[in-house]
Amino acid sequence: MAKKLPTGEVFISYSTKDKLYGMQTKRILEEYGMECFLAHEDLEISEEWKERILEELLRCDVFVPLLSKAFRESDWAPQEIGVIAGRENVAIIPLSIDGTMPFGFISHLQGKRISADGVSEDLLVAALVKKHPRKIIPGMIQRVTGAGGFRKAEAVMKPLVPLYPILTDDEIDALVTASIENDQVWSAAHCRGSYLPKLIEMHRNRINPEKLKALEYQVENDRLYNVDEA
Predict the structure, then answer these.
(1) How far apart are the C-alpha atoms of 189 and 153, rounded to whole Å?
(2) Model's pTM, two decimal places?
(3) First-to-last CA distance in the chain?
(4) Coil, strand, or helix at residue 95?
(5) What's the pLDDT at 228?
(6) Phi, psi for 12 (deg, rounded to 5)
(7) Which pLDDT value is given to residue 51?
(8) How far is CA 84 from the centre of its chain?
(9) Element (H, E) at 31
(10) In 3-state terms, what secondary structure has residue 223?
(11) Among 170, 135, 176, 173, which residue's Cα sits nearest to residue 157?
């Protein structure tokens, strides 16, 4: 078993008029194992909501403001930006619903436009990989653990390949363990032929010797070439 890796705590800031986008964002990030706080969705009716919101703002390490005209006109949403601006080491990922760009304390940041189809997984993951990789990589590896089917295994492994150079020892161990334990990974053509050999080549000296032996054996001796289907 690999050591459990820490994931990020996310505060999703939005106008209640844009709740659908907030729920989309939460659903995507939770699939990567991240803990998300969505005000109005996660608050109990009896809670002192202002205190709870402040508490969540002060403990999150990822802040996702869903910018819109309604956001700017909200009594509370812009104030949440002010609280976050006073903190260090928080990854801020501004997303724009209607073309509204970052303003006030985050006007120096570049916002990304949400497509007409809604918040996309690629939009969020790409931003986190760039700004806060340590918080999204654990979730990316966890998806390798649970990948069912060869095509799915290849799909979840592929975005990890460019991140190989920055993986920590714990992340390498977790990825190797996931690859060994999930036969859909080491039997998938691209994983077996490219993704896993690159991991081994780059980090051979950092991989547990017993796990390295097991992974190399699986990659080199797999004989599922003719049944490698989704």
Answers:
(1) 10
(2) 0.83
(3) 27
(4) strand
(5) 47
(6) -100, 115
(7) 85
(8) 20
(9) helix 19-31
(10) coil
(11) 176
Which pair of structure tokens corresponds to residue 181? 């334990």
CA distances from residue 151 to 38, 175, 223 in whole angstroms, order as listed: 33, 18, 17
Query: 9 forms bridges with which residues in the sheet?
Result: 35
- What ranges in 105-208 are assigned the alpha helix state H? 121-131, 133-145, 150-157, 169-181, 183-186, 189-190, 196-203
80, 79, 100: which is closest to 90 by C-alpha? Answer: 80
Which of 38-42, 77-81, 105-109, 202-206 is least confident? 38-42
Predicted pLDDT of residue 89: 85
pLDDT band at 29 (very low <50, low <70, confident <90, very high): very high
At 36-70, the pLDDT tens digits run 998 776 666 556 788 888 999 999 999 999 999 99
Amino acid at 100: T
The C-alpha angle with vertex 106 and arms to 100 and 109, in degrees rounded to 5, equals 80
Query: What are the φ/ψ torsions at residue 93 (nearest 5 degrees)?
Result: -125, 90
**What does the alpha-carbon distance between residue 160 and residue 143 come to, in Å, rounded to a whole number?**
11
Token representation of residue 44: 């109990």
